[in-house]
DNA sequence: GTACCGCTAAACATAG
DNA sequence: TCTATGTTTAGCGGTA
């Protein structure tokens, strides 16, 4: 359970707060273990040694500890923080853009260049405008950093280049253009910033000039991994943001994470191929047309994903396995919104079993007990912590078109499940049903720039570009689908509201300008005092959101850019509904009253059942934007 | 003893 | 033609 990340853990940040006594008093409900005090001490020590480059770094000035102290008179609520030697940036969003300060407004750049930078590293062109994005991965419950900047970002001494994604853990040290900062999650002790780990970080940071290979070797060893081939393949595929990987990338991933396979002869690669072909958990997906390269991509049949993940988590490794960046593929269709009403099982394409191959009944994973028994050399594995996904993350952004899913030459395997056919049987976190192809498009309450299609930094393709664009004739069907998206499980109230709004837009408002927002922003008497008293970040204008939302609705009705707009409406709807402090504009409600912010009963039950969903709800509900 | 599982090796076909 | 990729067959050892 990672929800603690979202709670008020100001106490964990005490090292940067001047009013320690006050903070200390807020921790009275929890006695800080002695070990935590020690590790915090080491943390402070480590943080104080982080470097600041000679050139101007805006963030160091804007978020100096002195200014923070002036700015925050009391407790600080945040998901995490970036702590530099003399400055601290508190993470109050679940998606942050790190980059160069915005260009002169008169200079029209690409749209992506104009995304609002959260962590401003100043004017130095060593830093790209969008240098990196740090965001919370709901599925893996991890913080990930996606690199965009040409000069990359060093994390724990290893340089990550554009397109690479690195998992941040508490204590990770980032280096952006010479400015070092430590990523710290609340509740350091729970986040396993143990003395040992802090020590590791220090050592790793101090070795930052060493080659990545050296660092990797310090983390891994050469023993045979305790995972079966199928699990390692699954790990590789799941580490890819788009949930699929080429054979060669699978090879690379395995040999990178498990050095055993760097030195052994290529027989294991034969076994990998053998496993991919024979194991019914793996499915071939063709490359998109025109995409260079040889061979298919491999993905995991949806019904096996959870099992693979579970098996990986049962790792005999001391620490956590490599992060899974893969998110469920996009689908607008929801099969069943009622969690108590499970869908019939999706027929699994049956692979031909060779006569000599023992028939595997059921999941191939059920037997995937880690082959510890075979590895009797003793000793324990070191962990692939903060996995080096670098060269492995699949660079392709193929969004599978069901019609193009490979038909195996083997006739028995020629019935692939389409994306729309992913099982929605309970139990499954509600987000599995949500129409989001990757973390960038999760309906977090982020700024609307996130509604842009995700651009793969390696090939500069838009992820949605392959998605079939619905014709205007399908709007009704889509709106029906929209209504049916399982977000309704979590935010039932919004569905009827959305429907009525769309209806109104259809009948009366397609050509009119957006109504003036009745929101007087912070002066509205309906707005209670800010929940985040110490937050002083610029907050997006509420009326702008409303206008954006209307424009999006209109664009759907007009049939333009539907794919994006539909998702954006979802995003906007969730965003608005989850701002209980904000009065909904009368135009958008039937009664003029603010819709109930409470979750529906089924949603509540579902969320309680699935901590990750709860976590997400909390994350969204506690977003700083709720202060509008 | 048997069935199952995971692994290894190899032959072969095919695509780029 | 070569190489990478994918399929299939065969057999071995470990485990339940």
Content of β-strand: 5-15%
Helix content: 25-40%
Classify the secondary structure makeup into a structural class: alpha+beta
Estimate the mean pLDDT confidence: 51
Biased composition (Low complexity): 408-422
Biased composition (Basic and acidic residues): 21-42, 332-341
Subcellular location: Nucleus
Domain Fork-head: 224-314
List keywords for this structure.
six-stranded antiparallel sheet, Tumour Suppressor Smad4, disordered N terminus, alpha+beta, disordered C terminus, Arc Repressor Mutant, subunit A, DNA-binding, 30% helix, 628 residues, 18 helices, 9% strand, five-stranded mixed sheet, single chain
What does it look like?
With 628 residues, the protein is of the alpha+beta class. The protein folds into 3 domains: 3-208, Tumour Suppressor Smad4 (Sandwich); 229-341 and 363-418, Winged helix-like DNA-binding domain superfamily/Winged helix DNA-binding domain (Arc Repressor Mutant, subunit A), CATH 1.10.10.10; 433-627, no CATH class. It has helices at residues 20-26, 34-48, 58-62, 65-71, 195-206, 212-219, 229-238, 247-257, 260-263, 267-278, 302-313, 475-484, 487-490, 492-508, 542-557, 562-577, 601-609, 611-621, and strands spanning 80-83, 88-91, 95-99, 119-120, 132-137, 142-147, 153-155, 158-160, 165-168, 173-176, 179-184, 244-246, 282-285, 297-300. The strands form 3 sheets. A 6-stranded antiparallel sheet has the order 2-1-11-10-7-8, with no helix packed on it. β5 and β6 (142-147) form a beta hairpin. α2 runs parallel beside α5 and α7 packs across α8 (247-257). The longest helix is centred in the last third of the chain and has 17 residues, at 492-508. The radius of gyration is 25 Å and the shape is elongated. The protein starts with 19 loop residues before the first helix and ends in a 7-residue tail after the last helix. The relative contact order is 0.10. It binds a DNA duplex (16 and 16 nucleotides) through residues 228-230, 246-248, 267-268, 270-271, 273-278, 284, 293-296, 352, 354-361, 364, 367-369, 371, 373-374, 408-410.
């Amino acid at each position: 359970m990672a929800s603690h990340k979202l709670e008020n853990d100001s106490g964990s940040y005490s090292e940067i707060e001047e009013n320690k006594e006050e903070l200390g008093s807020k921790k009275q409900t929890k006695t800080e273990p002695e070990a935590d005090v020690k590790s915090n001490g080491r943390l402070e020590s480590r943080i104080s040694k982080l470097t600041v480059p000679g050139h101007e770094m805006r963030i160091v000035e804007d978020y100096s500890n002195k200014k923070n102290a002036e700015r925050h008179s009391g407790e600080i609520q945040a998901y995490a923080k970036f702590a530099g030697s003399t400055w601290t940036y508190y993470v109050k969003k679940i998606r942050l853009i790190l980059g160069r300060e915005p260009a002169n407004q008169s200079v029209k750049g690409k749209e992506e260049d104009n995304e609002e930078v959260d962590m401003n590293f100043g004017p130095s062109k060593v830093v790209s405008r969008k240098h990196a994005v740090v965001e919370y991965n709901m599925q893996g419950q991890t913080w990930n950093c996606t690199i965009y900047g040409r000069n990359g970002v060093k994390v724990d001494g290893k340089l990550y280049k554009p397109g690479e994604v690195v998992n941040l853990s508490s204590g990770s040290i980032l280096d952006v253009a010479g400015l070092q900062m430590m990523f710290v999650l609340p509740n350091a002790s729970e986040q396993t910033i143990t003395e040992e780990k802090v020590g590791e970080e220090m050592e790793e940071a101090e070795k930052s000039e060493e080659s990545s290979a050296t660092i990797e070797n310090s983390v891994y060893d050469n023993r045979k991994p305790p995972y079966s081939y199928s699990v390692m393949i699954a790990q590789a595929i799941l580490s890819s943001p788009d949930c699929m990987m080429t054979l060669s990338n699978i090879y690379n991933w395995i040999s990178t994470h498990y050095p055993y396979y760097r030195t052994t002869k290529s027989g294991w690669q034969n076994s990998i191929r053998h496993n991919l072909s024979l194991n019914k958990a793996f499915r071939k997906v063709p490359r998109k047309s025109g995409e260079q390269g040889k061979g298919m991509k491999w993905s995991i049949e949806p019904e096996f994903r959870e099992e693979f993940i579970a098996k990986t988590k049962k790792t005999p490794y001391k620490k956590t396995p490599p992060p899974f960046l893969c998110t469920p593929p996009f689908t607008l269709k929801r099969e069943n919104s009622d969690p108590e009403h499970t869908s019939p099982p999706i027929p699994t394409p049956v692979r031909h079993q060779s006569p000599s191959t023992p028939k595997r009944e059921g999941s191939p994973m059920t037997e995937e007990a880690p082959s510890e028994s075979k590895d009797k050399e003793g000793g324990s594995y070191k962990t692939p912590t903060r996995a080096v996904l670098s060269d492995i993350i699949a660079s392709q952004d193929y969004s599978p078109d069901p019609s193009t899913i490979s038909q195996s030459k083997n006739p028995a395997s020629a019935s692939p499940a389409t994306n729309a056919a992913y099982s929605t049987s309970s139990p499954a976190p509600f987000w599995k049903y949500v129409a989001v192809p990757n973390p960038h498009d999760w309906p977090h309450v982020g700024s609307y720039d996130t509604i842009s299609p995700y651009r793969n930094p390696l090939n500069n393709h838009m992820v949605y570009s392959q998605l079939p664009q619905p014709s205007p004739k399908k709007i009704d069907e889509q709106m029906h689908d929209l209504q049916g998206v399982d977000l309704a499980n979590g935010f039932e109230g919004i569905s009827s509201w959305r429907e009525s709004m769309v209806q109104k837009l259809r009948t009366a408002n397609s050509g009119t300008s957006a109504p003036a927002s009745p929101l007087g922003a912070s002066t509205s008497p309906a707005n209670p005092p800010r929940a985040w008293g110490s937050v002083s970040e610029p907050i997006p204008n509420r009326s702008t959101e409303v206008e954006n939302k209307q424009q999006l609705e209109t664009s759907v009705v007009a049939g333009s850019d539907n794919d994006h707009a539909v998702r954006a409406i979802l995003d906007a709807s969730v965003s608005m509904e989850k701002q209980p402090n904000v009065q909904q504009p009368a135009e958008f409600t039937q009664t003029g009253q603010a819709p109930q912010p409470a979750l529906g009963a089924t949603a509540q039950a579902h969320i309680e059942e699935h901590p990750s969903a709860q976590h997400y709800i909390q994350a969204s509900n506690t977003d700083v934007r709720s202060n509008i």
